[in-house]
## 1
Amino acid sequence: MAFLEINEVRKQFSANIVVKGFNLGIEGGEFLSLLGPSGCGKTTVLRMVAGFESPTSGTIRIDGKDVTNLRPNQRNVGMVFQAYALFPNMTVAENVAFGLKVAKRPASEIKSRVDEMLQMIKLPHLADRYPYQCSGGQQQRVALARALAQKPKVLLLDEPLSALDAKIRVSLREEIRALQKGLGITTIFVTHDQEEALSMSDRIVVMNEGRAEQVGTPFEIYNHPQTPFVANFVGTLSVLKGKVLDAASGRIQIGKSEIVASRKLFQANAGDTCSVALRPEAAVLENGHAAPTGHNRLAGVIDDVSFLGSVVRVRVKIDDNAISLDTFNNPSAVPPQPGAPVVVSFTPNDVLVLDGSR
Amino acid sequence: MKQSKIGSWIAFIIGTLYFIVPLIGTFEFSMRMKRGEYSFEAYRVVFSDPNFQQTFLYSTLMGLITIVIGVVLVVPTAYFIQLRLPRLRPVVEFITLLPLVMPAIVIVFGYLRLYNSSSWIPLTANARATDLLLAFSYVTLALPYMYRAVETGMRAIDVRTLTEAAEVLGAKLPTILFKVIFPNVRVAILSGAFLTFAIVIGEFTMASLLNRPAFGPYLQLIGANRAYEPSALAIIAFLITWACMGLINVFGQARQMKRST
Amino acid sequence: MTATVDMTPPLPAEPGPVPDRSSAPKNLAVGQKLWAWLGVAPFFVFALMFLLLPTVYLLVGAFQDADGHFTLQNLADLFTPTILSAYWISIKVSVASALVGAVIGFFLAYAVVLGGLPAWLRPTLMTFSGVASQFAGLPLAFSFLATLGRTGLVTVLLRDLFGFNLYGTGFNLLSFWGLTLTYLYFQIPLMVLILTPALDGLKKEWGEAAQVLGASQKQYWTMVAMPILFPSLLGATLLLFANSFGAIATAYALTGSSLNIVTILLYAQIRGDVLHNQNLGYALALGMILITGLSNGTYIWLRGRAERWMR
């Protein structure tokens, strides 16, 4: 049995079904992200784990105990909000101490625990400051310390980095992950930013319209997306439109050429139109050397070259389609020129079939 | 926060009763003029009283004059403070808060001492001059609300950008003020104007001490001498206040709707 | 008598620093500044003539005797029984109407903002509060006389329907408590108008954060919400106090000179020098300015504090 179990949870607001049949098991110490666009239900799922919303049906168990009908103040979970939610009338130290004070712990225990937490987030010098005197990043770290002070069983974070500057977001991201690993606390992290989810999580749940589209490690989600939505939402793709020639061997006609896709087209029949997609790092420009046999090769013309620093993004027009591919910057080589004819190659395994595949 | 709603309903109902019952009571009382039956006799007496008509007219006129003076004072000030003299803002804010800090009776007492017939600006020397003084005292009363309304309106339309856009198109200051700024803060001015009107119509202290034939002193006279007419007047006053506030809301809504188009 | 009501929303936070306009040609910038000064001049002249000078005149006069020499005698003369009792009654009425108004106003505002009532009740209450807070003075006095006077509707109904003789219990509208009750009609709405934005400012997340940290409703209110609201609550109560202290018209129409409050005393003094000493009137005014000034000044300071916290 997993540490945190969400079983067949459904949430309905009047006529609106916001979460549909959600099932998830989270292991102890795991960092799991709920990733999806606005309105996909990820925050609702988090709030049901916290206890702010009651599931219309289904159960939630934490460490073997059924908490579905418990109030938030009985569940021993910690929560960090997008807007920090520090109490403005209390100093940083008083904020961190709040949960312990409410639980009527002895004063000495409170003091030592607060000091410990402030050390952990590396802000002991802010103990007597008020929230309005602290920056956004500092406030969020204090919110984290406050949530962890009582050693909760589960840590819940609701888009905690969305309100912060880009630079702070990246550094705080690493800090949160390091803290979580050090404490070994089971964590659910809600975000709409795929970079955050990919870089921080042990596993990701990609959600869409109230449903979990795919659960997997960042590697699996990115490289083996199981639905078109996941493929489109995570990372960038070039989409090619073509026609199925033979479902069994995976042959597809793109423009005037033919390519092979390893992942079988189970429900497609010959003659069906389909869409295939390529990650930008999968396609390669042939520089004079032909690709090994078995690789797919498409001939086209360079349309646009964007210099992005360490990466050079090249767009190649292939008849009616276009492929965007990334190559590493090479200072000693001549960059590709718009208008030059090139051949793009990629392996059959790189081809993500968006329609007609399982 | 899932609160029990019963307490809220109790509070609301008690509040409603406290506020509605006096209105009902007043209306009922005002209908009692003819012995034994309900009628609008009190209202008929009031409306046909020449004093009512004169004093009401006087106060209405005063209200309009106050509004005009107020707008002329406040709009350019709010404009220039926001645009060119932002450092004076705290001073202006302090000034606009003074009338709220000082009771009206103290203010008019000051006027009487400072501007009476033996001072160097004898504003109480004759009736017209006293009318002017009364208007100025009303402007003082209404200043905080008028200024706040106009300043909020100007903030909302970003006067700086509008002025720069107009300047680049070749407009000079008077054109900018009258053709660009005024029309856009019209709604804010209107809401300040209605509030001013409500204040002026019912005002008693200043008009009484300055001995002018305004609606307030008339109310006091009727209250001291008649039985049923005061209630009728109270209902009339309430309806006027309600109308003013309602119009503020209506124009406020209209502005919100214009924004969303 | 007008009530001091903040109808328009509280001032938004200070805008950012003004960009440096010195890049404009020198003479253009000077010309613009000149016009600006001219534009604000009428306002300042008005403020000088009709706000600052009269106040200063009164304040100076309070320290002068009939011949214009400096004296503290006027202040000393304030401490006569009549005048002291006038101040005392004024303060009592103001404290009573402020405290009762604050408590009832708080519960009303709470009911409508956080109490889970239907959403359409709130704008109704707000509009009505806006009207009621201006419905002061003579019309209000007439209203209460018509309702709770000896032949008022409620008095009569209580007698005819419940056999309850209101005036038999010693209640009299023309008294301290009658006046306080009447004052509540504009004090409560004023409280509602000021407190509603403050209650709005109580972020939902604070309540949720407190819950998730283990706090009960009661603990949330005592440890978080009330401390946050306290500056606004106290400030609003002070505003109500000053509002009541400076009111005159309602009292004049209701209790006349039977209830000797400071404003009525000053009114009589201005009309007919009942104190037989011109400058004593100035001293009276000075006392009033001090009390309302202190009260309102504290309100404004508290409001600034509350806004700073809410950033």
## 2
Amino acid sequence: MTPARKKRLYLVLLMILGIGTAVALAVTAFDENLMFYYTPSEIVAGEAPVDHPFRMGGLVTAGSVKRQSEGLTVQFDVTDNDKLVTVEYTGILPDLFREGQGIITRGRLRPDGVFVADEVLAKHDENYMPPEVAESLKTVHSGADDPGGVTP
Amino acid sequence: MTPELGQFALILALCLAVVQATLPLIGTYTGSRQWMSVASTAAWGQFTFLSISLGCLIYAFVNNDFSVTYVANNSNTLLPTIYKVSAVWGAHEGSLLLWVFMLGAWGVAVAALSGKLPAVVRARVLSVMGMVGVGFLLFLLLTSNPFERLFPAPLEGRDLNPLLQDPGLAIHPPMLYMGYVGFSVAFSFALAALLGGKLDAAWARWSRPWTTVAWVSLTIGITLGSWWAYNELGWGGWWFWDPVENASFMPWLVGTALVHSLAVTEKRGAFKSWTVLLAITAFSMSLLGTFLVRSGVLTSVHAFATDPGRGIFILAFLCIVIGGSLVVYAWRAPAVTGGGRFDFVSRETLLLANNVLLVIVAALILLGTLFPLIYDALELGKISVGFPWFNKMFVSFMPLLIVVMGIGPIARWKRQDPAELAKHLRIAFIVSLLVGIVFALPMLPGASPLAGLGIGLAAWLVTSLATSLADRLRHKRGLAAVWRDITVQGRSYYGMVLAHLGMASAVVGVTLVSLHGMEKDVRLSPGQALEMSGYTFVFEGVESHQGPNYRADRGRVRVLRADEEIALLQPEKRTYTVQTKPMTEAAIDVRPTRDLYVSLGEPVGGGDWSVRVYYKPFVRWIWLGGILMALGGLLAVSDRRYRLPARSRHGVEAGTSPAGQEATG
């Protein structure tokens, strides 16, 4: 091999090494950091894993927000207009959190069926519905047209 | 009447953009000077009409013309005038108009400042910019008309989103767009050079200042965005890996690679094809960012009112831009001959490593941003890629980049003796290693291996820059000579030093605030105190307060250190009268080495409030880093070699070519 070719080979090998490392790192880290999204109905049906982080979204049910007299723990129900899941969160809720609002929350499901959230997101814009939430609500609405379907 | 005038001006601007895109380009093939010279006239005309259009929209906002839908949705009679103006770019339609206006401004700047360019090159560059303009003007007119009328006109507008009523946000989008759009100039230069089949040092020297200015704007835009999020969102975060943030960060990374690769192309004539590809990529990333933000395909905290039609338009535009430019690339690039040779150990190789690393990081961020989309499209379920993933990717590659950053400025072009290099950097290496070890020592409060790594790397940047400076100044005698070197001879070198120091500052900030920042959400009764990181926060309760267009609950928090009061913080919870949206105004006590950050949550009963208290060490250093980088870029752009006529430089083909004479003749 001429020195010029050898040099080029080194450079190419170095680049392949870099890109290979990047891909390997990216994929292995994906395993731990990909978070699935479940609707309250899926959780009630037992499709969501227990004690493993995932995201859930829906509407905050009117009148369901309960605050403990000590500390900052708050409980509320989230619904996709079909099933309810109780969420427990300790901390400060976002400014736009309110009853009837579409939210997305991240956390783990306790064996007793309560979703323990470590993050609650409501969006910048109050007219804005997170796409996942909008979609899960729609499916339920269309289900209501079927005989025997759930009431919206 | 004014809104119609604005819209009419937009249509005229579109017509002129079409002229600018076609006639000069045809002229370059037929050799017609007249046709080529149409380009700059058209650019000026386009800019004039865009200014009129933007002026009309500002006029509508200032005069509360709620018969315009966009104004009715984003303004209000009570809104302070300064925010009426910034509300122009507070939502999709207006910000797109601002975007197109910026594009027009860049076009005029190129037309006005490129007198030294060969007429053919200038015509090609402006023509490509015209094409980009056509795309965006069509997008604006077809899908997002800011002048659409509303009938019947409401008496009162729906007000600007309170989050956007902040001085930082008045200038953040314009700077960001300056950067995004600025890459279209680098893109146009690259395509023009490809079309002309001449990728030489002259081309690199012409596009360098433009690329750097675009990069500087983007740097400032991102820095402001981060600072705004920290101030306004009330949760004290300065970076969230949100798709919209990523959308601005990816072009920045690729743009950074481009700035460095252009240096190699200018100085050594190497990396030509790669530089062209980077220019195309940087602009495509800007477009992709626009697509992601405005189409609503991704869940993001930045909720632009979205519309699938817009998404499809931008996607089509993106395909045309990327596809078209790659076709030109495939067609012309094989004609590009290899540049200067270089050894395995040389500055060229180190800059190549810089480029590869930056592009890898950008590609990873792209992957993480798009992965939820891909997953959803394959119907594998809805997922999101967590914050930790991005951090992990970033932290895996940045240290390597910083190591290379230290060596690069010291290494010689073309060939570097590795032993000599090692000897040269010995002191810098030992010093930074020691600094790293000190910060990793377990007996030091708050020290950890990661802190050692971060601070050690920052020290490496600083010490290696000092080595480089010592080399440069070794033969300068006296302060006057040094000053002359800084102000006259070596601006581009000192620009680099400043920008790299900015990186060191940002690394220190990110490391310390990530590792040693303290955050507590607590429930506090009036009179109750909280201890954190040696500070005592005494909550004194909350009282009502009336603002111009909002009502606020204002808390009082006294901060004590060693029983001495050092600050009174008054965080607010505002409710805006029109949008009835609660807004958190954090109160921050700023010192160079730390921020104390208090924001109010909500009343939780019995006079108690939930309160968020943060201790943020060195957080300002992150933004200081951004400012230093931007200043460095500006200093580099002011280097006199960009202002000298091309022909006075030896070895530059353009100066002696017929085209070059034509331009100045």
## 3
Amino acid sequence: MFRYLTLPMLRPVIVTVVVFRLIDTLKVFDLVFGLTGGGPLRATEAVQTLTYQTAFKFSNFGEAAAIVVIFSALIFAICAAYGALDRRTGGAE
Amino acid sequence: MTRSRRATILSYAILILAGFLSLFPILWIMGISLKTQADAFAMPPKLIFVPIWDHYAKVWGDAAFIKGFFNSVFAALLGNLMAFVIGIPAAFALNQCRVPARGAILAWLLLSYMLPEFLFVIPMYGLFQATGLYDSVFGLALVYQTFTLPFTIWMMRAFFADVPFALYEAARLEGAKSWQILLRVYLPMAAPGIAATAILNTIRIWNELAIALGLTFDKAQTVTLAVAAYRGYASIDWGALSAAAITSILPMLIFAVLAQRQIVGGLSLGAVK
Amino acid sequence: MAAVEFQNVGISFGNVPVVKDLSLTVNDGEFVVLVGPSGCGKSTILRSIAGLAGISSGDMRIGGKRMNDADPAARDIAMVFQSYALFPNMTVAGNLGFGLKIRGEGKAEIDRKVAEVAAVVGLSDHLHKRPGALSGGQRQRVALARAILRRPGVFLFDEPLSNLDAEFRTAMRAEIVRFHRTQGASMVYVTHDQTEAMTMGDRIAVLAPLAAGHKANLMQYGTPDEVYHRPSNLFVARFIGTPRMNVVTLPVEGGAVHFGNQQIDLPPSAARLTRIILGQRPEHLRLSPQESENGLTGAVEHVENLGHEMILTLSTAIGPMVLREARTGSAPSLGQSVQLSLDPNQVHLFDPASEERIGCFQLAADSRQGYR
């Protein structure tokens, strides 16, 4: 019952939630910065912590800007893909 | 055991587990803030102990922390003020002009939510240095508009849309101008919406770290940075750190508990509209 | 000087015309009802008087002055909305005093005027309450009081009784009519209910939707009597009166039509037609249980017994007929065959092409010939 009726109907919501959480976790900063600051020798580096380091530790604003712009383009692409997918399947949003 | 009973027990088990996982870190931190250094790191963990208030005393006596705390308060106040001063007339105008801007506002809102914070911090760093807004609460509140403004406009538009248009017409017939109608008719009716939006904005601003980190140095440090400051280079004062963390959570916790209904209502309304 | 005057007014929403070529005058102190089915433009016309709907062409005058583009608040009108549009966050006193406060009058002055008008409508004990705590009838009175305070030249009513229960409607109808008599101001009243129109108006404007193919909206503008007894076209004939007028299309043979065995001679202007539309109201059809020479045979399909009268639906060779007759004896039984005949003085004739009225006629058998 759950598998054949509830789950399929929940699919659009599940996809939406997954996309949102995906983007949320991709752009994580607070958690990583607070816990490890990027990790011993960048072992736990995330994109935004890298951006921070590049800009403020190494004073390389140009490169930092490039990093974050490319990253934003990636996120935008994910959103666009989700939007296109959503529109194609009838869209619940 | 019947199927539904099994499902209920399963759901409760998952909920309890999830709740525990969420609350456990906070409870643990609260424990550290009340224990001596030795008690805090004792293995196996000491569940029964004698609480000490030294850590809290230290944190509350620390001028830097107090300053950070109040900087957050001002940032939240200023951020909300800016968002409402711009957002309320904007939402009202959008409603009156019947422009189908709903899609555009929704896109703006989602975009502001999705984009990484440093996308705003990097360019603003140089700009703020040049204009003297660097390391100021005002500058912070300004940058916070990237997410408070679209959210406020979104929520206010939804609440204003709830007001029957006949009221606007009746007020017009009485000779009221647009701004008078907004002030005397729409705002009082949308008051719960304003409260919910303000609360949600405040929580978001209060917990913000990345932008504050990039755009402040020492004068405008917010409470999140003040807590992080307790993590020294050589050693970490766990007790003070925990006490500072708990202190920073407390206002929002009280806020959320008191305004539970408004927050849930506001969130769901934003979703439905 | 007329209170409201429309001269060849047209109103369009974008490219869609809603009102076309409307010419109508509301005289000073008159109670005019705009009535018609949905989409006929009655609310739009009312709102154009108020300034809430824009006029695309033609002239609209209020009190002799052209007011097409005037500010709604400067038009010397007051409006009672369908939903009453009371401000829920203010008390009754606040609602009533809203306009005065906007205009900048002093608090003492506002309180005095509010108390005065509250006494007129009988709401003096409710001034401190919020609209949410009032009944439907009380809310209507607040809306009325708010309108009175503006001392307008014209009162506008937008279907104010539609939201009320049927039992309240009759009482509220009387209240509004009484209100008109005491105030003596001009009133324009919009409704879709033809009973309201007939019972309340000095004059009725019957409107038809342009979307249904009509050339213009105004079908007829006259007193309830005129509209009822002399409908100028088929639309008005069918819209006014309940149960609806019986309407049949009959072939013209030799300058006359035949209602079963009954012959009706047509006037010369109508005799040229091949077909003609004939109508008679249910209360004018005559019933005789036995077969007689004149008339149309019909079988009783349905009987509605209202106590003092009965409404019969009959099936005949030329279509269903509805008849209304006072309960004198027992009602005819279902399936019973009865004879229907037309009242010669109450026949309405319409041109089948234009649906315009041709005239009322008397039977050929009756020696008095003539038409009204």
## 4
Amino acid sequence: MKLRILLADDHEIVRRGLRSLLEKREGWESAEKPAMAARPSRRHSS
Amino acid sequence: MTIRILLVDDHPIVRQGLKTLLEGRTGWEVIGEASDGAEAVEKAKELNPDVMVLDVTMPRMNGLEACRVLRRQAPQLEILFVTQHDSPQMMREAIDAGARGYVVKSNAARDLLAAVEAVSQHRVFTALNVREATGLN
């Protein structure tokens, strides 16, 4: 099964570890979006 | 140059990330892994590595305690801390415990290879922010 995975973590060393683990599975591929970790989360008020 | 490295961190995913980075260098070999300080002390005795990459906060025995034990047990072993702690106090404590280098985990991808190379040659490695914080050269 083909699966495309987006990795977001502020530590590059953790992204490397996750990527190396995930890409051992055939058909799984990962991409990184490190900037997401630095972006403040938005809270919605009700 | 051949460097035999022992990785010590309680998070397997961090060890995996460190390993992929280190094994990109020709001649560098990760000869073993440990998930706490006590296991690190045992594995160092068994495997006799050149360099240990050591986390600080771990169960059973933390990295600082392990470092102090290893300084007595294996004086030829060079120890490099790779940790999330970026306080000047922790950096100073690590160097006082006998480590040759200190890298903050968030900078590991940038600093790790230079740090391992330096400590393997018995030179102190502290990234710029560490030098500023502790006054070490």
